[in-house]
Amino acid sequence: MVFRVAVAGCTGYAGGEVLRLLLEHPAVEIGALTAGGSAGSRLGEHQPHLWPLADREILPTTADTLAGHDVVFLALPHGTSGPIAEQLGEDTLVIDCGADFRLTDAEAWQQFYGSAYAGSWPYGLPELPEQRHRLARSHRIAVPGCYPTSVTLGLLPAVTAGLIDGHDVVVVAASGPSGAGKALKPHLLGAELMGSASAYGVGGGHRHTPEILQNLRLLGASEPTLSFTPVLVPMSRGILATCTAPLADGIELGADVRDAYQRAYADEPFVHLLPEGQWPQTQGVVGSNSVQLQVTVDRTAGRLIAVVALDNLTKGTAGGAIQCMNLALGLDETTGLPRIGVAP
Ligand SMILES: NC(=O)C1=CN([C@@H]2O[C@H](COP(=O)(O)OP(=O)(O)OC[C@H]3O[C@@H](n4cnc5c(N)ncnc54)[C@H](OP(=O)(O)O)[C@@H]3O)[C@@H](O)[C@H]2O)C=CC1
Ligand SMILES: CC(=O)N[C@@H](CCC(=O)OP(=O)(O)O)C(=O)O
């Protein structure tokens, strides 16, 4: 069976990555390609790497242009997905790459996004406990933010095994600028970006903070606290997240944390615990849907340290979205998804 798929936001980074992966997917046919102001132009003007679709005309993003598809990916700015999604048939599988339906707490949404709360959809991180079942029956899926995917996978085994209780979690995560989207932003001009690294959203203000806390609670942390600092670095793609937290009461400094991580991820097709002594690098995952991680205990500080690398556009957005699509359509979860990255 072949599923007909539309992509809204096809000129952007996330939409472009969804299309790159769909072009190699054996069970889909690419239908409508839509965007905003670029409607009327050809895809090749915006996404030169997607040459098989270069001549395709970009349509406006409306319920009409997106109707008649088995699957619709929404890769649109925050606040744009809700009004479109509610006009799409309930039988259509709608996968939102944006934040509109990720948070279950309306107050947290209001505080961090400031717009009307649209509700929540099943959360598109299959590696969470019991989540594959939920996604397999769902017609609506909210793809996680790229930082929350990295931090959640970095700490999942530690929280579920009770090695940390979720208080005093500190995360510093470096990301390439593709995470910020294609729209022009003065601090993302080449001259400002090249050769420099800069922290942003410092002091608890980044909108991924409530999403990470939501995930830590879901994993069993009763009252998690988080200090999250993202850092912009000059590489096109990739996230390297360093996540630390104090060992829970009763956990000894010599605890075998590696064993918990090995058990948690032994059967995961996309999450790879590196051999002891090797630490993740973004270079190892770029262009793939793989996550590489390593864990240890800093005995001087009494803290667990997990380091995670992923490609923000692949596992962090489009690859994760297609992994969820596969589950929801009853396909093998790994179909069409690269596991090996591009190097150098
Ligand atoms: N980049 C990343 O690493 C990640 C992105 N995401 C999410 O994916 C979504 C898209 O992000 P990204 O691709 O980075 O952003 P881009 O700015 O690169 O692309 C945005 C896309 O949305 C279209 N668009 C803009 N405004 C409208 C509108 N009013 N109506 C219809 N289409 C519109 C643009 O079309 P046009 O060319 O016509 O303006 C473009 O195709 C966002 O919600 C983002 O949060 C999620 C995780 C990671
Ligand atoms: C480098 C950079 O700017 N990254 C983005 C996060 C990208 C992401 O996951 O985005 P959404 O939650 O918007 O879907 C940011 O910090 O806002």
From TrEMBL:
Pfam families: Semialdhyde_dh, Semialdhyde_dhC_1. Residues 4-136 form the Semialdehyde dehydrogenase NAD-binding domain. The keyword Membrane does not apply. Its EC number is 1.2.1.38. SUPFAM superfamilies: Glyceraldehyde-3-phosphate dehydrogenase-like, C-terminal domain, NAD(P)-binding Rossmann-fold domains. The active site is at C146. It catalyses: N-acetyl-L-glutamate 5-semialdehyde + phosphate + NADP(+) = N-acetyl-L-glutamyl 5-phosphate + NADPH + H(+). GO terms for biological process: L-arginine biosynthetic process. The keyword Ubl conjugation does not apply. It is found in: Cytoplasm. Pathway: Amino-acid biosynthesis; L-arginine biosynthesis; N(2)-acetyl-L-ornithine from L-glutamate: step 3/4. Keywords: Amino-acid biosynthesis, Arginine biosynthesis, Cytoplasm, NADP, Oxidoreductase. GO terms for cellular component: cytoplasm. One of its GO terms (molecular function) is NADP+ binding. It is an enzyme of class 1 (oxidoreductase). It comes from the Bacteria. Catalyzes the NADPH-dependent reduction of N-acetyl-5-glutamyl phosphate to yield N-acetyl-L-glutamate 5-semialdehyde. NCBIfam families: argC. This is N-acetyl-gamma-glutamyl-phosphate reductase.
